[in-house]
Protein backbone atom coordinates (compact mmCIF):
# COMPACT_ATOMS: atom_id res chain seq x y z
CA UNK A 1 0.00 0.00 0.00
CA UNK A 2 2.11 2.88 -1.33
CA UNK A 3 2.38 6.09 0.62
CA UNK A 4 1.26 9.16 -1.33
CA UNK A 5 1.50 12.89 -0.66
CA UNK A 6 -0.91 15.18 -2.49
CA UNK A 7 -1.81 18.85 -2.44
CA UNK A 8 -4.57 19.86 -0.07
CA UNK A 9 -6.12 23.30 0.40
CA UNK A 10 -3.98 23.97 3.50
CA UNK A 11 -0.76 22.14 2.56
CA UNK A 12 0.31 18.63 1.64
CA UNK A 13 -1.76 15.67 2.82
CA UNK A 14 -0.48 12.17 3.57
CA UNK A 15 -2.31 9.10 2.36
CA UNK A 16 -2.12 5.42 1.53
CA UNK A 17 -3.36 4.41 -1.89
CA UNK A 18 -3.99 1.03 -3.49
CA UNK A 19 -4.34 0.99 -7.28
CA UNK A 20 -6.50 -1.85 -8.60
CA UNK A 21 -5.24 -4.16 -11.31
CA UNK A 22 -8.70 -4.05 -12.90
CA UNK A 23 -9.12 -1.58 -15.77
CA UNK A 24 -11.58 1.25 -14.96
CA UNK A 25 -12.00 -0.11 -11.42
CA UNK A 26 -14.37 1.77 -9.10
CA UNK A 27 -12.91 4.16 -6.52
CA UNK A 28 -13.37 4.32 -2.75
CA UNK A 29 -12.30 7.08 -0.36
CA UNK A 30 -12.10 6.20 3.35
CA UNK A 31 -12.41 8.92 6.01
CA UNK A 32 -11.10 8.63 9.58
CA UNK A 33 -12.62 9.67 12.95
CA UNK A 34 -12.20 13.02 14.72
CA UNK A 35 -8.58 14.27 14.68
CA UNK A 36 -8.85 15.83 18.15
CA UNK A 37 -9.90 12.46 19.60
CA UNK A 38 -7.04 10.44 18.12
CA UNK A 39 -8.59 9.77 14.71
CA UNK A 40 -6.08 8.89 11.99
CA UNK A 41 -6.02 6.87 8.77
CA UNK A 42 -4.50 4.01 10.81
CA UNK A 43 -7.60 3.69 12.98
CA UNK A 44 -8.67 0.04 13.12
CA UNK A 45 -12.09 0.45 11.51
CA UNK A 46 -10.73 2.89 8.92
CA UNK A 47 -8.03 0.38 7.99
CA UNK A 48 -10.59 -2.45 7.85
CA UNK A 49 -12.72 -0.42 5.43
CA UNK A 50 -9.68 0.27 3.27
CA UNK A 51 -8.77 -3.41 3.05
CA UNK A 52 -12.37 -4.40 2.33
CA UNK A 53 -12.54 -2.15 -0.73
CA UNK A 54 -9.07 -3.31 -1.80
CA UNK A 55 -10.22 -6.94 -1.62
CA UNK A 56 -13.29 -6.09 -3.73
CA UNK A 57 -11.09 -4.82 -6.55
CA UNK A 58 -11.42 -1.08 -5.93
CA UNK A 59 -8.73 1.55 -6.21
CA UNK A 60 -8.90 2.92 -2.67
CA UNK A 61 -7.38 5.67 -0.56
CA UNK A 62 -7.27 6.52 3.13
CA UNK A 63 -5.53 9.67 4.23
CA UNK A 64 -4.77 11.89 7.22
CA UNK A 65 -6.75 15.12 7.26
CA UNK A 66 -4.98 18.41 8.00
CA UNK A 67 -2.79 18.43 11.09
CA UNK A 68 -2.84 14.63 11.49
CA UNK A 69 0.35 12.56 11.08
CA UNK A 70 2.47 14.09 8.34
CA UNK A 71 -0.40 16.09 6.85
CA UNK A 72 0.14 19.84 7.01
CA UNK A 73 -2.23 22.44 8.43
CA UNK A 74 -4.38 22.26 11.53
CA UNK A 75 -7.88 21.17 12.49
CA UNK A 76 -10.56 23.43 11.04
CA UNK A 77 -13.74 22.30 12.78
CA UNK A 78 -15.03 20.29 9.83
CA UNK A 79 -15.12 22.89 7.06
CA UNK A 80 -11.48 22.51 6.04
CA UNK A 81 -11.70 18.75 6.50
CA UNK A 82 -14.46 18.59 3.87
CA UNK A 83 -12.11 20.47 1.51
CA UNK A 84 -9.36 17.95 2.33
CA UNK A 85 -11.69 15.10 1.37
CA UNK A 86 -12.54 16.84 -1.90
CA UNK A 87 -8.80 17.21 -2.63
CA UNK A 88 -8.26 13.50 -1.97
CA UNK A 89 -11.11 12.71 -4.35
CA UNK A 90 -9.66 15.03 -6.99
CA UNK A 91 -6.31 13.26 -6.74
CA UNK A 92 -7.86 9.82 -7.17
CA UNK A 93 -10.02 10.93 -10.08
CA UNK A 94 -6.99 12.45 -11.81
CA UNK A 95 -5.23 9.07 -11.60
CA UNK A 96 -8.42 7.18 -12.58
CA UNK A 97 -10.32 9.30 -15.13
CA UNK A 98 -12.44 6.36 -16.32
CA UNK A 99 -13.41 4.82 -12.98
CA UNK A 100 -16.65 2.84 -13.12
CA UNK A 101 -18.00 4.10 -9.79
CA UNK A 102 -17.18 6.14 -6.70
CA UNK A 103 -17.84 5.26 -3.06
CA UNK A 104 -17.33 7.27 0.13
CA UNK A 105 -16.83 5.43 3.44
CA UNK A 106 -16.59 7.32 6.72
CA UNK A 107 -16.42 6.33 10.37
CA UNK A 108 -17.63 8.63 13.18
CA UNK A 109 -16.54 12.21 12.34
CA UNK A 110 -15.40 10.79 8.99
CA UNK A 111 -19.02 9.78 8.34
CA UNK A 112 -20.09 13.42 8.79
CA UNK A 113 -17.36 14.61 6.41
CA UNK A 114 -18.26 11.88 3.92
CA UNK A 115 -21.94 12.78 3.86
CA UNK A 116 -21.07 16.46 3.37
CA UNK A 117 -18.89 15.45 0.43
CA UNK A 118 -21.73 13.33 -0.94
CA UNK A 119 -23.87 16.45 -1.29
CA UNK A 120 -21.12 18.29 -3.17
CA UNK A 121 -20.07 15.60 -5.64
CA UNK A 122 -22.89 14.22 -7.81
CA UNK A 123 -20.59 11.55 -9.28
CA UNK A 124 -20.61 9.62 -5.97
CA UNK A 125 -22.51 6.36 -6.53
CA UNK A 126 -22.65 4.91 -3.01
CA UNK A 127 -21.73 5.53 0.61
CA UNK A 128 -20.90 3.82 3.88
CA UNK A 129 -21.56 5.69 7.13
CA UNK A 130 -20.41 4.02 10.37
CA UNK A 131 -21.47 5.53 13.70
CA UNK A 132 -22.32 8.95 12.22
CA UNK A 133 -22.45 11.53 15.07
CA UNK A 134 -26.10 12.37 14.43
CA UNK A 135 -26.63 13.60 18.01
CA UNK A 136 -23.77 16.13 17.77
CA UNK A 137 -23.97 17.36 14.16
CA UNK A 138 -26.95 18.48 12.13
CA UNK A 139 -27.40 16.12 9.17
CA UNK A 140 -30.30 18.18 7.84
CA UNK A 141 -28.16 19.06 4.82
CA UNK A 142 -29.04 15.59 3.41
CA UNK A 143 -32.12 17.00 1.71
CA UNK A 144 -32.49 15.53 -0.70
CA UNK A 145 -29.95 12.76 -0.24
CA UNK A 146 -28.72 11.86 -3.74
CA UNK A 147 -28.56 8.07 -3.27
CA UNK A 148 -28.96 5.25 -0.77
CA UNK A 149 -26.17 3.68 1.24
CA UNK A 150 -25.20 1.61 4.26
CA UNK A 151 -25.45 3.00 7.80
CA UNK A 152 -24.12 1.10 10.82
CA UNK A 153 -24.72 1.83 14.50
CA UNK A 154 -23.71 0.33 17.82
CA UNK A 155 -26.42 -0.33 20.39
CA UNK A 156 -24.12 0.70 23.26
CA UNK A 157 -22.51 3.67 21.55
CA UNK A 158 -22.55 6.72 23.87
CA UNK A 159 -20.73 8.99 21.41
CA UNK A 160 -23.06 8.31 18.47
CA UNK A 161 -26.26 7.06 20.16
CA UNK A 162 -28.28 4.60 18.10
CA UNK A 163 -31.65 6.39 18.59
CA UNK A 164 -30.28 9.55 16.93
CA UNK A 165 -28.90 7.51 14.01
CA UNK A 166 -32.19 5.61 13.72
CA UNK A 167 -34.04 8.92 13.50
CA UNK A 168 -31.71 10.04 10.70
CA UNK A 169 -32.24 6.77 8.82
CA UNK A 170 -36.02 7.09 9.11
CA UNK A 171 -35.81 10.63 7.75
CA UNK A 172 -33.66 9.57 4.79
CA UNK A 173 -35.91 6.62 3.98
CA UNK A 174 -38.88 8.96 3.49
CA UNK A 175 -37.05 10.60 0.58
CA UNK A 176 -37.99 9.52 -2.92
CA UNK A 177 -35.58 7.00 -4.44
CA UNK A 178 -33.50 6.64 -1.27
CA UNK A 179 -33.21 3.35 0.63
CA UNK A 180 -30.79 3.13 3.54
CA UNK A 181 -29.47 -0.30 4.49
CA UNK A 182 -29.43 0.12 8.29
CA UNK A 183 -27.61 -2.39 10.50
CA UNK A 184 -27.33 -2.24 14.27
CA UNK A 185 -24.90 -4.27 16.39
CA UNK A 186 -26.57 -4.29 19.84
CA UNK A 187 -23.39 -5.04 21.83
CA UNK A 188 -21.13 -2.55 20.04
CA UNK A 189 -19.90 0.71 21.52
CA UNK A 190 -18.25 3.50 19.53
CA UNK A 191 -14.99 1.58 19.06
CA UNK A 192 -16.62 -1.57 17.64
CA UNK A 193 -13.89 -3.58 19.38
CA UNK A 194 -15.40 -7.00 18.56
CA UNK A 195 -17.37 -6.08 15.43
CA UNK A 196 -14.69 -5.29 12.81
CA UNK A 197 -15.33 -8.58 10.99
CA UNK A 198 -19.10 -7.95 11.02
CA UNK A 199 -18.57 -4.47 9.59
CA UNK A 200 -16.30 -5.85 6.87
CA UNK A 201 -18.89 -8.48 5.93
CA UNK A 202 -21.71 -5.91 5.95
CA UNK A 203 -19.79 -3.52 3.71
CA UNK A 204 -18.90 -6.28 1.26
CA UNK A 205 -22.50 -7.49 1.17
CA UNK A 206 -23.98 -4.03 0.69
CA UNK A 207 -21.49 -2.82 -1.92
CA UNK A 208 -21.73 -6.03 -3.95
CA UNK A 209 -25.53 -5.89 -4.04
CA UNK A 210 -25.66 -2.15 -4.75
CA UNK A 211 -23.19 -2.40 -7.63
CA UNK A 212 -25.08 -5.35 -9.08
CA UNK A 213 -28.29 -3.31 -9.04
CA UNK A 214 -26.51 -0.36 -10.67
CA UNK A 215 -25.19 -2.60 -13.44
CA UNK A 216 -28.67 -4.05 -14.02
CA UNK A 217 -30.12 -0.53 -14.25
CA UNK A 218 -27.47 0.49 -16.77
CA UNK A 219 -28.13 -2.65 -18.82
CA UNK A 220 -31.86 -1.87 -18.83
CA UNK A 221 -31.13 1.56 -20.29
From TrEMBL:
Pfam families xref list: Hydrolase_4 (PF12146)
- Serine aminopeptidase S33 domain mapped to chain residues: 36-133
Which branch of life, at top level?
A: Bacteria
Hydrolase as UniProt keyword: yes
GO molecular function, a single term:
hydrolase activity
Keywords, A to Z?
Hydrolase
Query: Where would you find the membrane-spanning parts of this chain?
Result: none
Q: Which PANTHER family match?
A: AB HYDROLASE-1 DOMAIN-CONTAINING PROTEIN (PTHR42103:SF2), ALPHA/BETA-HYDROLASES SUPERFAMILY PROTEIN (PTHR42103)
Protein name per its UniProtKB record: Alpha/beta hydrolase
Amino acid sequence: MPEVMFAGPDGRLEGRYHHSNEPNAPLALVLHPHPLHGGTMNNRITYALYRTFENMGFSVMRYNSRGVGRSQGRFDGGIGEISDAAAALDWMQMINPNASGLWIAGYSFGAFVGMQLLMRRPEITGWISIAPPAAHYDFGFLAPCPCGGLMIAGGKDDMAPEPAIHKLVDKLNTQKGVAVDYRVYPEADHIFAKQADKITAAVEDHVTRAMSQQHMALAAD
